[in-house]
Amino acid sequence: MANEISEIIKRLERIEKHIAALKAQLKKKPEQARKVLVPKRGVLTDQIMALREDGFFDEPRTITDVKIKLAERGYSCPVTTLSPILLGLVRGNQLKRGLTPKGFEYKAP
């Protein structure tokens, strides 16, 4: 019985040392930047379609124009997220796409 108690005490001491070491590591790590939440694909598609209905795509718009306009509406996302969504809308005949010296421009059909 005494042997079992001493084993338990040794285990607890090792656990306490391990916890202390983990706490020290946590203190050394710099604060990480907050992750930016990117809206889901369906939400962005709906917002782009709302832009189209509002006449935003009556004039040719670059992907950067779309990104800025969505950010103004509270939907921030990287261009790499927008590109496949816009391509899907072009393939679904919801938008037209043309190549210019600036890059692709999107317009309502």
In brief, what are we looking at here?
58% of the residues lie in helices and 11% in strands. The protein has 109 residues and is mainly alpha-helical. It has a domain at 41-107: Arc Repressor Mutant, subunit A (Orthogonal Bundle), CATH 1.10.10.
Description:
The protein has 109 residues and is mainly α. The protein has a domain of 67 residues: Winged helix-like DNA-binding domain superfamily/Winged helix DNA-binding domain (Arc Repressor Mutant, subunit A, Orthogonal Bundle), CATH 1.10.10.10. 58% of the residues lie in helices and 11% in strands. The protein is built from 4 helices and 3 strands. It has a 3-stranded antiparallel sheet with strand order 1-3-2. A hairpin with a 2-residue loop joins strand 2 and strand 3. Helix 3 crosses helix 4. The chain is rod-shaped and about 85 Å long. The termini are far apart. 9% of the residues are buried. The model has no long low-confidence stretch (mean pLDDT 85).
Question: Level of helix content?
Answer: 55-70%
The CATH topology of the domain at 41-107: Arc Repressor Mutant, subunit A
Order of helices and strands: HHEHHEE
Please tally the helical runs, counting DSSP H or I stretches of 4 or more residues. 4
CATH homologous superfamily heading of the domain at 41-107 = Winged helix-like DNA-binding domain superfamily/Winged helix DNA-binding domain
Computed structural class:
mainly alpha
Largest sheet: 3 strands, antiparallel
